[in-house]
Structures are given as structure tokens and as C-alpha cells.
Design brief:
Elements lengths: L1 H4 E2 L1 H8 L13 E4 L9 H7 L6 E2 L2 H4 L16 H10 L7 E5 L7 H10 L4 E5 L2 H7 L28 H11 L1 E4 L3 H4 L17 E2 L15 H10 L13 E4 L5 H11 L5 E2 L3 H5 L12
Parallel strand pairs: 1-5, 2-3, 2-4, 4-5, 6-7, 6-8, 8-9
Helix pairs in contact: 6-11
């Protein structure tokens, strides 16, 4: 399962030495740079200063999300037509292999991984450890912008499971397991930097995305991920978990990283795209605080 979700820097470097361009016909993957974090505004500038060879820049705010609204949340899923246009601009075709990376342990790149999978692109992997794993091996970066040869992908929504607020509430109420991927202090309601209410969905379990990673910024070993999710009542070997695990975060971005970590251990978890930014804007939804 792990190799279907993640790729290490050495394997990617070997892949990028094949042929002369990021074109499926020459065997090279399409590489996408998704540098973003909450409050970060210079992702494109960082990309221009140095990125993986041939990598195209992806703007999370404008290409991996629709316009924010209180009713839909801060990062609603983009429409199929908008995402298809963006993916073609990145050079993605139906038979492309795609690798996504960032500088924050994959917590933003996973949004691109999830959306590409959701829209029907089959072979998408996250660079384990991101930019730091690449440079730690002494591998070179390229400056400037890259304009790929346009792709011709035809998107087909529905490749990854999603849940809405009612389904998230049902999971948290005993029909399954609902994980809150935000920082623990946000889950407990001690702080809330962006959304209108502090707290969490009643019945959800705290499972911060950052705890999917080791000190080196790479995903934990598969055994350790199994132990982590097992402690939360989720087992990849248990068929009763099928369709009964959901994940949310602040706005549906870092929750995709948790979905990826669950996929590593064989659990197909559903994403709640509206996440806390949608839930906390609905006065009809109850809010819990504390541990």
C-alpha cells in the first residue's frame, strides 16, 4: 500500500533521469510543487527561488479550491471543469504518473494528491519528506518558472470518498470513527486562529496530522502508522471499518494528509471537505470543547 501513496527522493531522482521531459511518453512523472501553509503568501516566490527539476507550481488557494464561503468552508472542492483546466496546465494527461511535494511534510501537497485521485488520475504519489528530503541528499534545485507542455486529462469526479456534515456527525455519533486532524489545542477549543468558533465536532477523536510524521518530516513507518490508528480504533485489517472512517481539519487541506496516511495502512477514509470552517459557521451544529 505504501508505495501506491509515497515515493522516496532516491526513487524519484532515478525516475527524473529518464528521457528529456516530464512527458508520460518518455517515462518521466509530472512533478508538482504545492508550497502552501496557513498564513503563507510567498509559496510561488519560494518555488521560483528553487524547485525540483521540471516541477510546475500549483497554487493551492486558486487551483486546488473554489472560492471560500461560510456555507461551503474556506477551501471548497473545485469544480470538475476548473480542476481539469488546471491539471492540463500542469501537464497532466490520463496516463500521467504524478508526484507532488511541498516543504511542510506533505501536509499541503496531499491536497493535490487527494484531488487528483478524486478526479480520476490513478498514479499519484507524495514525495516522502518533501523538498527537505530531496536537498538532504545533495540533489540540485532549478530556479525560475516551468511551463509544461499542456496535458489532455479528462477528469472524472468520485475517485475518492467524501462525506458531508450530516455524515460526519453520524460517524462521530457512533456509526464509525471521525478524526479531527487539526492541532490538539484547536480540537480542545483552546485557540482558534481563523474560524468563528473554537472546539470540535462532538464525538470526533483528536488525531493531529503532524503526528503522521517523524522528526525528519517523513511519514512514520507503516508499522507505526498502524499502531497510531489502531490506538484510535481503526484497523486496516478490519473490514468493518470500510466506509466508516472520516477525516476533517480546518478546511479540508491537511485532512487529506491523514487520508493518505490511512491509505498507507490500507484504510479508505472519507474526507469531509467543508471541515471545521463549514461546521463552525452553521449555528445549527453543536460544538464540543475539551479533551
Amino acid at each position: 500500500m505504501r508505495e501506491r501513496v509515497l515515493v522516496d527522493a532516491a526513487t524519484l531522482a532515478a525516475d527524473l533521469r529518464v528521457g528529456g521531459g516530464a512527458d508520460p511518453a518518455d517515462g518521466r512523472p509530472v512533478v508538482l510543487d504545492v508550497r502552501w501553509a496557513l498564513g503563507m503568501t510567498d509559496g510561488h516566490d519560494q518555488y521560483r527561488a528553487g524547485h525540483l527539476p521540471g516541477a510546475a507550481y500549483v497554487d493551492l488557494e486558486t487551483e486546488l479550491a473554489a472560492h471560500a464561503t461560510p456555507a461551503e468552508g474556506r477551501h471548497p472542492l473545485p469544480s470538475a471543469s476548473a480542476f481539469q483546466e488546471a491539471a492540463r496546465r500542469w501537464g497532466v494527461s490520463d496516463d500521467s504518473r504524478v508526484v507532488v511535494y511541498d516543504s511542510v511534510g506533505g501536509t499541503s501537497a496531499a491536497r493535490a494528491w487527494w484531488l487528483l485521485r478524486y478526479f480520476g488520475v490513478q498514479d499519484v504519489r507524495i514525495l516522502d519528506g518533501g523538498l527537505a528530503a530531496w536537498t538532504a541528499q545533495g540533489r540540485a534545485l532549478e530556479p525560475g518558472d516551468v511551463t509544461p507542455e499542456p496535458g489532455d486529462v479528462v477528469v472524472r469526479p468520485g475517485g475518492m470518498p467524501v462525506i458531508d456534515a450530516d455524515e460526519a456527525a453520524a460517524l462521530a455519533d457512533g456509526e464509525g470513527v471521525l478524526l479531527d486532524a487539526r492541532a490538539a489545542e484547536r480540537y480542545r477549543g483552546e485557540v482558534e486562529p481563523v474560524d468563528p468558533q473554537a472546539g470540535h465536532v462532538p464525538g470526533a477523536a483528536s488525531a493531529p496530522t503532524t503526528e503522521n510524521l517523524g522528526a525528519d518530516g517523513r511519514f512514520l513507518s507503516t508499522a507505526n502508522l498502524k499502531r497510531r490508528f489502531g490506538d484510535l480504533g481503526i484497523s486496516g485489517a478490519d473490514p468493518t471499518t470500510d466506509g466508516k472512517v472520516g477525516v476533517y481539519c480546518g478546511s479540508g487541506v491537511t485532512a487529506a494528509h491523514e487520508v493518505a496516511a490511512l491509505a498507507v495502512v490500507g484504510v479508505d477514509a472519507a474526507l469531509y471537505p467543508g471541515s471545521w470552517s463549514q461546521w463552525s459557521n452553521d449555528p445549527a451544529r453543536h460544538v464540543a470543547v475539551g479533551a
